[in-house]
């Protein structure tokens, strides 16, 4: 096992996180990723090159603690990076969100063996190694709505054998580690996370990701056929109903902010295209750019108002004292729905050019619609908020 990386021994490959030079670096990465975004959308190839560029500047280990060689970034700092990446290529940004969230929470877990926690962190720093949680299954659907996993971990000598499959395994072509949610074959069963190396024998791709939008996330089905892992790799396993796998309150806040920022970034890219197009499109019957018409000015104003609201809400929510943690799902609901509305307004105003596959707006529209599939989904958010509101009145 490699020796721990001391923070004093690490030379940062990016400028200080809150400097103008760092902002300039992010702006350059946005432009670079935007230039290849259409290719990744059309081909559904995984954006290995984008992630390699992020590792080049130590941006895949941004939320690894400084004591282990990372930047120990705060949520506002992580938000800044996700915004920039998403505005260029959102599939890359979604993979980054999962990396940031996992690494932020990892070192606080009391259940993981220290050696494994530090190994996963060190490999992110040294190699840009990626990790993600794999929870959704064909039969179960979203685990947020209840139920036990069908994926089973069976005792085998000095370890476990994992059998089952997971859907929507975001980043799977580039992951080094898989945090697999499963149940043991014990009576009664225990439930939790088994850590599986992506290259372990018996891990294979089942059905491939082939969706309308966010096409480059590599969110394939992963199948586990008698995959052996050592006993210590049962890193967070507990009786059903006890605290363990899943998001705690702080994790939910980070997820709500960073996930929402991906789709806000898509909407901002759509806004930029629409503004540029309306400024240069000069119909012969008008003799002036479309941007000179009050209707187009109002449309851009409506889009900018929605994105202003998103920015203020995300910035406030990234500051822990600004928004209560139980309000975090409303952040996701509000920002993502306003992002969808912003792109829809651009589509409506631009007409056929906006829906043409020769222009990026239709791609932005397909991408932003994917915000609706992420947990918590709209119905769950609204039902939870409404239930809490009525409960508060009844208890008064």
From TrEMBL:
UniProt keyword annotation of Oxidoreductase present: yes
UniProt-listed InterPro entries: Acyl-CoA_DH_C, Acyl-CoA_Oxase/DH_mid-dom, Acyl-CoA_Oxase/DH_mid-dom_sf, AcylCo_DH-like_C, AcylCoA_DH/ox_N, AcylCoA_DH/ox_N_sf, AcylCoA_DH/oxidase_NM_dom_sf, Mito_Isobutyryl-CoADH
All copies of domain Acyl-CoA dehydrogenase C-terminal, residue ranges: 259-375
Gene3D superfamilies referenced in this protein's UniProt entry, alphabetically: Acyl-CoA dehydrogenase/oxidase, N-terminal domain, Butyryl-CoA Dehydrogenase, subunit A, domain 2, Butyryl-CoA Dehydrogenase, subunit A, domain 3
UniProt superkingdom: Bacteria
GO molecular function, one term: oxidoreductase activity, acting on the CH-CH group of donors
Domain Acyl-CoA dehydrogenase/oxidase N-terminal per the UniProt entry, residue ranges: 30-98
CDD domains noted in UniProt: ACAD
Keywords from the named record: Flavoprotein, Oxidoreductase
Database matches in SUPFAM superfamilies: Acyl-CoA dehydrogenase C-terminal domain-like, Acyl-CoA dehydrogenase NM domain-like
Occurrences of domain Acyl-CoA oxidase/dehydrogenase middle (ranges): 137-227
Name of the protein in its database record: Alkylation response protein AidB-like acyl-CoA dehydrogenase
Organism: Paraburkholderia bryophila
């Amino acid at each position: 096992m490699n020796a721990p990386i001391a923070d004093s021994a690490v030379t940062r490959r990016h400028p200080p996180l809150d400097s103008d030079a760092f902002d300039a670096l992010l702006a350059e990465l946005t432009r670079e990723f935007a230039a290849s975004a259409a290719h990744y959308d059309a081909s559904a190839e995984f954006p290995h090159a984008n992630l390699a560029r992020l590792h080049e500047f130590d941006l895949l280990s941004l939320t690894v603690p400084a004591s282990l060689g990372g930047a120990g970034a705060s949520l506002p700092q992580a938000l800044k990076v996700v915004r920039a990446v998403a505005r260029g290529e959102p599939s890359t940004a979604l993979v980054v969100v999962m990396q940031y969230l996992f690494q932020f929470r990892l070192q606080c877990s009391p259940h993981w063996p220290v050696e494994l926690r530090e190994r996963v962190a060190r490999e992110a720093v040294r190699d840009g190694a990626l990790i993600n949680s794999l929870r959704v299954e064909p039969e179960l659907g979203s685990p947020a709505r209840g139920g036990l996993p069908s994926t089973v971990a069976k005792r085998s000598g000095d370890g476990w054998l994992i059998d089952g499959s997971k859907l929507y395994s975001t980043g799977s072509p580039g992951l080094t580690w898989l945090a697999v949610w499963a149940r043991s074959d014990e009576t009664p069963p225990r439930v939790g996370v088994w850590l599986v190396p992506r290259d372990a024998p018996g891990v294979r791709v089942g059905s491939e990701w082939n969706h309308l939008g966010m096409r480059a996330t590599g969110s394939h089905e992963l199948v586990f056929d008698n995959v052996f892992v050592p006993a210590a790799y049962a890193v967070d396993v507990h009786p059903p109903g006890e605290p363990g796998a899943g998001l705690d309150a702080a994790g939910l806040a980070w997820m709500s902010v960073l996930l929402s920022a991906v789709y806000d970034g898509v909407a901002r890219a759509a806004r930029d295209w629409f503004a540029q197009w309306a400024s240069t499109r000069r119909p012969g019957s008008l003799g002036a750019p479309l941007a000179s018409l009050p209707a187009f000015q109002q449309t851009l104003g409506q889009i900018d108002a929605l994105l202003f609201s998103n920015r203020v809400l995300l910035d406030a929510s990234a500051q822990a004292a600004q928004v209560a943690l139980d309000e975090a799902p409303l952040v996701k609901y509000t920002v993502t729905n306003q992002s969808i509305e912003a792109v829809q307004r651009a589509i409506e105003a631009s007409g056929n050019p906006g829906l043409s596959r020769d222009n990026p707006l239709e791609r932005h529209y397909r991408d932003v619609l994917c915000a609706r599939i992420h947990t918590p989904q709209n119905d769950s958010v609204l039902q939870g908020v409404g239930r809490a509101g009525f409960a508060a009145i009844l208890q008064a």
